[in-house]
Design a protein that fits this description.
single chain; 4-stranded mixed β-sheet; 2 domains; 3-stranded antiparallel β-sheet; Ribosomal Protein L9, domain 2; alpha+beta; Ribosomal Protein L9, domain 1
């Protein structure tokens, strides 16, 4: 079905664009929500007016979101989570949790899809995260994942200790001096000598 977009639909089309879309997408989503209209001769005559109105709306939103971006760039968003004995989180911190915290902090609805997290966070610590607030308006925040019941300072100390702690795999283990001594437990060679005798 050929439609004319009445509003911007992210990753699909901008207002005023005429595109061929799947019938189901048009009938079940675009038309009922007023995002598009069938591309009739009458509708096509309104393309210029639709594009002009959309441009004005984009400029307005861009200015509003730029103010929010300035306010939150460089700020720290704290997320408290439960951790296990190993120091890893029960579950993970996702874009949804970060979006909820940002919505509380800014008073503006921020969707989890605007949080450009990549992969979920599984360990306490500070993580830089980019937020796409509106089209080309981005902000960079620090997400501080804090174990439940700890202050940010205590959590930072715990994260530092965890980094200095035991390696996750033997391949990561530091080797100092003689490798055979590091790999062989104390007294192992004495036992082997006793077996040979």
């Amino acid at each position: 079905m050929k439609v004319i977009f009445l509003k911007d639909v992210p990753e699909t089309a901008d207002a005023g664009e005429v595109k061929e879309v799947k019938n189901g997408f048009a009938r079940n989503y675009l038309l009922p929500k007023g995002l598009a209209a069938p591309a009739t001769a009458d509708a096509l005559q309104r393309v210029g007016a639709i594009q002009k109105a959309a441009h004005e709306t984009r400029v307005k939103f861009s200015e509003e979101w730029s103010v929010v971006a300035e306010a939150i760039t460089g700020t720290t968003v704290s997320v408290e989570v439960r951790v296990g004995p190993s120091g890893r989180l029960f579950g993970s911190v996702t874009g949804r949790a970060i979006a909820e915290k940002l919505t509380e902090a800014t008073g503006r609805a921020i969707d989890h899809r605007q949080v450009l997290l990549g992969t979920a966070i599984h360990e306490p610590g500070d993580y830089p995260v980019s937020i796409r607030l509106y089209r080309e308006v981005h902000a960079e925040v620090i997400v501080s994942v804090i174990p439940e019941g700890y202050s940010p300072e205590e959590a930072a100390a715990m994260a530092a200790l965890a980094e200095e702690g035991l390696p996750e795999t033997l391949d990561d283990a530091p080797t100092g001096g003689d490798e055979t001594e590091a790999a062989e437990p104390a007294g192992a060679s004495d036992e082997e000598d006793g077996k040979d005798a």
